[in-house]
């Protein structure tokens, strides 16, 4: 009898669990936290974990494109006796906190507090959580470092006054205030309220640039000493600690009419300034240098600096490596003509010269300038007038990582193998890969480096973690394949996410497993549908994998309608779905879990879309519908009931596909471009024109970047109109929902243009304008309204209630 009662109780418990499980809703989305950056102190003792709190917990939403900084929280773990993570410091609920660099001994860490419209930085004692606020705020790092420790008691930094943080934050709140104030001056006082920008001989007519301070900070006394004022953006301290090199913006540069413009093409010179930290003096020199953002390397034992420079009238490829040496009260510069450096490019189009030091020898990835055309790039060491191969023939052609110590001994790792090079002797290493060891504060330039100075490298060899130095190696125990970060004491941090999206951070070393933090435990009550791969042929016959998020409780005899999320250029891995398709993803752009919870299948389509050079819209509907049909053939969704929702570049794709097929039941476009001609030059002049106008980045976006039309509008007008949905609006048959933020500098005015074209023809369309929002809608009230309207819109297109499975009836 007791056994029967126990079985009955178990059945009741299981039934209760099943009843309580429910689909994911927009309210759940607003409560999702995101675990962000994890960093380890240099001594391996401390972990710092960053968590971006859910939108419903955020105190404000006027930080422009960086709303997560308003509600960031910092936690720490002491790995000498690890346990549950605790707050790094006492944190104001009305502020967000971001961690920067650890001190060399690991006992302190720099933090910045964003509270209201002010940013102030401080130093936290790791052991106690005590913080000393400094009265200035570290500048936001876009390209490289804005703070670096000079020993354990001094920091060299680029700072702002707390009330004047970096423009990427100010743009969020100042753009509204700026427009309102300017309009008020005109309306109430008759003006003048005008913004002037110039071109050609009027190029310098604009506002002066915003000045930052390059300072030293004494950590023990909190004394801040200014070295210089200027538009500084990156710094690096010499290995001796005597000098600091800093890049700053200089004079305006205007491109020539026939120049190829990339995303990294700058409208301002990047000048070099070197300061003697013992005397505080600035050393002039390198007057005709326009610097590359991604190389600033000091020799490991001497005060010699390696940079990549060109004249303002030269292209990146015409530049050269330059050796800069402080001599007395000036800088001596010597162009390294022996090497033609190879340039890699980031996705945005910033050039990355691969160069640095092995011991006191400058080295670079490229080829000898004396070499005729042909041959291959390789790592070259420059000695005297010669450039000789740095690595033996058995080395990987393009190593992923080279670590060189001050004596010139190297550890080299790449796809082709790995080895140690010391004293002319090469030791091969078998079956190793680099272990993840990210550092707090090392963004941009430091993170991009392939050649780095250091004394050790953490590697995985099969199932073991190895600490490798030029002298030898040490086995630190079992390696974790899924480690987010590995410390030099052998601890790894692993994130396990269950089928509900609940994430557990765990510290592991050997057989020891210690839970550090659980993120989003509330998701355990949510019933998420499966995320399944779909194999299909691509436009060239190649095999591709797309992914589909299924609604919970779907039935094979009652196939759900399908919502396609297109983004041309996305090609997904067969090993796992895209991050934003997984349970617990907190992205507000297009939340697949909300759509699936409402009863729709959500298709992430792999779209190589490279068949038609310089024709970004050509063949989109055909490519998208081929994936739709593959999903239908797999018996996962109803290929006869299909809607499409695209955001940004995906929004442009959604509108273009709508002009090419009548198979779509509904079109949703958020922040997408409809008219490339007007968008090409129509930059929103926000409240920060002194920070530089983004014309060149916009030109690059259309001509050589994501759109890649290949030319400006006057050189290829038919191409611009042919690939703009506005000029094909008469072919759209499906109802269209358009949603834009009024502060969106990327697609400003595009929704109004497309709506006007549809309105003129009497077509079914709806335009939502979200005031105070940028490229992504972030404020919870606006997000709820957006999803409420989208779900109603799709319900009407597909028939009320969607698939009839897990449909949500409540509406904002």
Give your account of this protein's structure.
The chain has 812 residues and is of the alpha+beta class. The chain has 12 helices and 49 strands. The strands form 11 sheets. It has an 8-stranded mixed β-sheet with strand order 42-43-45-44-46-47-48-49, with helices on both faces. A hairpin with a 5-residue loop joins β1 (34-40) and β2. α6 packs across α7 (649-658). The radius of gyration is 28 Å and the shape is globular.
Number of beta strands? 49
Strand order of the largest sheet: 42-43-45-44-46-47-48-49
Taking Cα atoms only, what radius of gyration do you get, to the nearest Å?
28 Å
The coarse overall form would be: globular
Approximate strand percentage = 25-35%
Question: Any low-confidence stretches, pLDDT <50, length ≥5?
Answer: 1-19, 801-812
Helical amount: 10-25%
Q: What is the tally of helical segments?
A: 12
The chain-level mean pLDDT equals 88
- Helix and strand content put the structural class at alpha+beta
* Distance, first to last CA: 51 Å
What profile does the largest beta sheet have?
8 strands, mixed
């Amino acid at each position: 009898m007791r056994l029967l009662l126990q079985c009955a109780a178990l059945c009741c418990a299981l039934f209760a669990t099943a009843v309580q499980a429910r689909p994911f809703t927009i309210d759940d989305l607003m409560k999702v936290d995101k675990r962000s950056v994890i960093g380890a102190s240099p001594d391996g003792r401390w972990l710092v974990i960053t968590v971006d709190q859910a939108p419903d917990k955020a105190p404000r939403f006027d930080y422009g494109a960086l709303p997560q900084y308003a509600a960031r929280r910092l936690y720490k773990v002491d790995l000498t006796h690890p346990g549950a993570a605790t707050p790094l410091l006492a944190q104001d609920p009305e502020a967000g906190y971001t961690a920067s660099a650890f001190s060399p001994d690991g006992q302190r860490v720099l933090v910045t507090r964003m509270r209201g419209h002010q940013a102030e930085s401080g130093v936290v004692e790791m052991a106690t959580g005590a913080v000393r606020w400094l009265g200035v705020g570290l500048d936001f790092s876009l390209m490289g470092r804005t703070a670096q420790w000079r020993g354990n008691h001094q920091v060299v930094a680029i700072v702002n006054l707390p009330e004047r943080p970096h423009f990427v934050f100010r743009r969020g709140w100042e753009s509204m205030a700026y427009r309102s104030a300017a309009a008020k001056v005109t309306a109430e006082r008759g003006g003048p309220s005008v913004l002037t920008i110039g071109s050609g001989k009027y190029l310098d007519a604009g506002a002066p640039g915003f000045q930052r301070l390059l300072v030293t900070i004494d950590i023990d006394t909190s004394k801040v000493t200014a070295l210089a004022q200027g538009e500084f953006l990156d710094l690096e301290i010499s290995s001796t600690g005597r000098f600091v090199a800093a890049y700053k913006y200089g004079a305006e540069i205007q491109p020539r009419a026939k120049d190829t413009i990339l995303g990294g093409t700058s409208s301002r010179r990047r000048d070099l300034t070197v300061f003697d930290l013992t005397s505080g003096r600035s050393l002039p020199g390198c007057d005709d240098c326009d610097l590359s953002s991604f190389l600033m390397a000091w020799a490991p034992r001497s005060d010699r600096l390696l940079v990549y420079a060109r004249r303002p009238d030269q292209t990146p490829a015409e530049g050269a490596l330059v050796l800069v040496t402080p001599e007395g009260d000036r800088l001596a510069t010597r162009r390294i003509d022996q090497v033609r450096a190879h340039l890699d490019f980031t996705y945005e189009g910033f050039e990355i010269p691969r160069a640095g030091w092995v011991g006191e020898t400058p080295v670079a990835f490229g080829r000898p300038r004396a070499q005729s055309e042909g041959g291959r790039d390789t790592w070259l060491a420059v000695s005297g007038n010669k450039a000789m191969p740095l690595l033996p023939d058995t080395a990987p052609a393009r190593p992923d990582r080279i670590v060189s110590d001050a004596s010139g001994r190297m550890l080299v790792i790449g796809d082709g193998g790995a080895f140690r090079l010391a004293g002319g002797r090469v030791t091969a290493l078998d079956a190793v890969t680099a272990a993840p060891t990210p550092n707090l504060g090392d963004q941009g330039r430091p993170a991009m480096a392939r050649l780095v100075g250091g004394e050790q490298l953490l590697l995985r060899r099969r199932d073991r973690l190895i600490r490798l130095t030029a002298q030898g190696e040490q086995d630190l125990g079992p390696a974790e394949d899924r480690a987010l970060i590995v410390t030099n004491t052998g601890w790894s941090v692993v994130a396990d996410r269950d089928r509900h999206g609940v994430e557990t951070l765990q510290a592991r070393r050997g057989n020891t497993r210690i839970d550090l933090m659980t993120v989003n435990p509330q998701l355990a009550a949510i019933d998420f549908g499966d995320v399944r791969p779909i194999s299909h042929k691509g436009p060239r016959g190649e095999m591709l994998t797309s992914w589909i998020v299924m609604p919970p409780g779907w039935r094979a005899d009652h196939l759900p309608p399908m919502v396609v999320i297109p983004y041309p250029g996305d090609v997904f891995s067969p090993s796992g779905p895209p991050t934003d398709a997984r349970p617990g993803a907190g992205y507000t752009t297009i939340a697949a879990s909300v759509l699936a919870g409402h009863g729709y299948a959500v298709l992430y389509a792999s779209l190589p879309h490279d068949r038609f050079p310089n024709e970004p819209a050509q063949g989109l509907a055909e490519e998208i519908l081929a994936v739709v049909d593959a999903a239908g053939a797999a018996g996962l969704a109803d290929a006869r009931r299909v809607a499409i929702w695209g955001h940004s570049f995906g929004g442009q794709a959604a509108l273009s596909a709508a002009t090419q097929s009548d198979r779509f039941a509904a079109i949703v476009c958020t922040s997408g471009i409809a008219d490339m001609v007007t968008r090409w030059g129509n930059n929103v002049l926000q409240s920060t024109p002194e920070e530089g106008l983004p014309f060149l980045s916009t030109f690059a976006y259309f001509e050589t970047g994501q759109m890649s039309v290949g030319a400006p509008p006057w050189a290829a007008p038919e191409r611009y109109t042919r690939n703009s949905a506005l000029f094909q609006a008469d072919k759209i048959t499906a109802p269209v929902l358009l949603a834009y933020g009024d502060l969106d500098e990327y697609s400003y005015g595009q929704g109004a243009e497309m709506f006007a074209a549809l309105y003129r023809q009497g077509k079914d369309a709806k335009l939502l304008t979200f005031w105070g929002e940028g490229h992504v809608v972030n404020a919870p009230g606006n997000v709820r309204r957006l999803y409420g309207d989208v779900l109603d819109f799709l319900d009407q297109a597909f028939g009320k209630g969607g698939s009839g499975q897990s449909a949500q009836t409540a509406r904002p």
